[in-house]
């Protein structure tokens, strides 16, 4: 009888533990459900990180997102001054470099002789040299990005994803039309201004832009499905699998 009672007690405790674990699991699911809902929120380009992290999270991100307004305004003002000099005033790069060197050498020469004549001692002009580590880091990062872009272009050229291939062709075609309307410097300046304005505006109106872009992407997918059913699916393709098997 004692053994029978002990077995009954063990079964009851197991059921109680099972009920507690199931209730705890349901509580965990309830707790995790808000996070799962948050993870399902649509972000443009499948973004999962904040805008500041997307731009690297360092000083360039601070400049693009106007964390320091003086530095961002100075960078944008310098780019605007360069564009005005070369585009509106028709200044040439070699002429600008020569004039800048002439002015700097003349100022240093006059300063050195004037201070020597007055104080009878030559001024201390600091030595300027380019450090090696930042240049190597920039070259290494540029090499990695170029290799990554070439790898992506190779995968697209292999024809693994027709949607990406058509999107790239359309993008390059639009870029060629824009390039025929303006020169490289103007195009570069427009892209530079957009980098200093679009991310800030997107960060400010993030939820509204993501909601609108979700509707646009749904409509694009619908139109692509119709185009695929009416055009792409009817394009004859050779029996590649049969050739490989043979």
TrEMBL record:
Keywords, comma-separated and alphabetical: Endoplasmic reticulum, Membrane, Transmembrane, Transmembrane helix
PROSITE patterns on file: RETICULON
Region (Disordered): 14-37
Transmembrane segments: 71-86, 92-111, 164-192
Membrane association type: Multi-pass membrane protein
Bias (Basic and acidic residues) ranges: 14-32
Location in the cell: Endoplasmic reticulum membrane
Domain spans labelled Reticulon: 60-246
GO cellular component annotations of the record: endoplasmic reticulum membrane
Pfam families from the UniProt entry: Reticulon
Record GO biological process: response to bacterium
Identification of the protein by name: Reticulon-like protein
